Amino acid sequence: MDARTVEQITEWDSRPFSGGFEALRDFSDADFSGAVKAGGAWLFMLNGRVVGIFDGNIESFEDANGEAYEAPHPSLPLLFSMQERGGKTQAKYYTNDTPLKEASSTLSSNKFTGYVELSENVLSGDYYVVYHGGRSMNVAYVGESEKLLTGDEAFQRANDEVGIYEVVAADVDIIDIPEPETPPEPEPEPTPTPTESQPSESDAESGSKSESNSVPVADSPPEADDDSAASPPNDGQPAPSSQPSQASTPQTPPQTTASESEPTPETEPTQKQDSPRRATPEAKREQKQSQSSQPTQSSQSSDSAGETKTPASFSDEQQWRETTTIPSLDPEKSSSSKSRDTGVKQRRTTRQSPQQQGQNRNSRGAPASASNRTKELEAELAARAEKIEALQTELNSVEVERDELKQERDRLQNELDQLRTELETVRQNSPGATAERQITPEQAFTETNLFVRYGSKGKGTLADAAAGEASRETIESNLKLEHHTQFDVDGVAVDGKEFETFLHKSMEYQFVSWLVVDLLYEILETGHQRGLKDLFEAIQEIDRAELQGTLTAETEEGEERELSFDVILRDRMGNPLVVANINDSRDPATGEMLGSLVDASSDVASASNELSAAFQVTKSFFEPAALETTEDATSGGLLTREKRESFVKLSRKRGYHLCLVESRNGEFHLTVPEL
């Protein structure tokens, strides 16, 4: 059993049980929903039916003692059983493209068996819709406290969320509890009363035949209206009879064939005896199984795709297993558009043109006036003439503005030519002008990798520093950032500078140098090892830095796309640990920059568990919109219990730290989170 599942079950109300199969039969009679543990085996029950056994089999519970845990909602044992058994993911959908309500309605109408899990890219919690033969139940774990929500409340919360949900088809095995080997109890024979008339030989013979072909029902209630007929039996006690006392006297059976006279458990009342006996547990279970074998009605509300109401018992088990694949959720395949077009055509046919309306008015005795029509046309002509004059004036103004813009364009072109000439002169006189080859900054970065190396691992490493066993001076003297290029650096210049000079003065190189040494000690000295735990541990594993690199992530449609970052720090296996974007201009970092970083980093974190942090580095400062974007991405709500600082939570198990860094006078300062 999954450890997390066991932890959740053990929080339910529990009580000890003993007696093995007999105790399980008592649970079945009581419509128990929950889990039963005996030794190392677990058994799940839903409405008295065994829906799964794990780490053992049904024989593990024979004569066994253990603990019974009653589920707070019947959906939980069914969901846990499906998850423990394992299912097949049929599809994934984005809620904005295919709403959960629409998908749930389609799955229910197609008698789907399995569950829907909405948790990916959802920060508020995990949401589930469990289906069995099309009937659905809803459950959710919300917030850091994992508050349990069920029923319509759980579905409404899930339907309002934005994220990716997964449709999983899962089987359910209904396991019978072995019955005790006891001889059947003989049926008592009715004794005629003194007032009973003796039947004739033919009547007696016919009666005996009918009696031999009938199906006895122990302590069934008398036939009533539809509502009373659908109610469960009254614990084996005979229901109050509205018939006169002669109902206790056996009646002569009608002379009909067995096929015509055989009663059904739902419709034929049984005759009460003078001394009714209490139904045995075996009879109650037999009656319960007889009722559960009848298909139950289950309907989905036309205006809500929420939980199907009270699945009191399972219907035909073979039917539950018929459908484990999901139907198409493509709205193009529905007939709703056709019906809408038909409705529009019907409405259009009821409208009349202005000419028809005028004819109708004339037919009612309101003749049009020729003089009035002439005045209307003259007024319309004058209005059009005024509009033409206004448009001509506007055209003249636009032509004047066009000529002015042409002159401005020519002036700017002349200035551009002069600047290009000056730049070429400066390049020819710069130190890098003597280089054999000039390359662009982009080429220099994309073809360069930085490696974290030590003079001697015995003299102190980042792991030693994290453990408090090496000083900053020791690490700075022992650690080296070595570069490796895909080109020969001899005789190469970048932006008029020698390659190594360009590289060491770049913000990318200086940021990596600050991250692996200075930031590690800042976290140690300020006591933020716990709040920045994922980042603190990742720094110790950094092996190399890729400049202006790319990572791949899978889209919702299953296609791969490339995501670009200015710096990607990896471990020895190449897994991305930290990503960063650099703003090397005097303009402040904007909210759009932070939004792009969050989107790309979230996609990487969803595909790779190793990503610990994403950095936005700026040479100036952060706009308020950038800070608001950061707060929205890392906020867990008013009641959040998240202990990790500035943490973007993608699900209960995935997330990363979002950090903002300002570079001033060649030094880097972590502004979010504050140390």
From TrEMBL:
Residues 177-377 are annotated as: Disordered. Coiled coil: none annotated. Residues 229-268, 289-304, 351-365 have a biased composition (Low complexity). Residues 197-215, 305-327 have a biased composition (Polar residues). Residues 439-675 form the DUF7527 domain. It comes from the Archaea. Residues 269-288, 330-344 have a biased composition (Basic and acidic residues). Pfam families: DUF7527. Residues 177-188 have a biased composition (Acidic residues). This is DUF7527 domain-containing protein. The lineage of its organism: Archaea, Methanobacteriati, Methanobacteriota, Stenosarchaea group, Halobacteria.
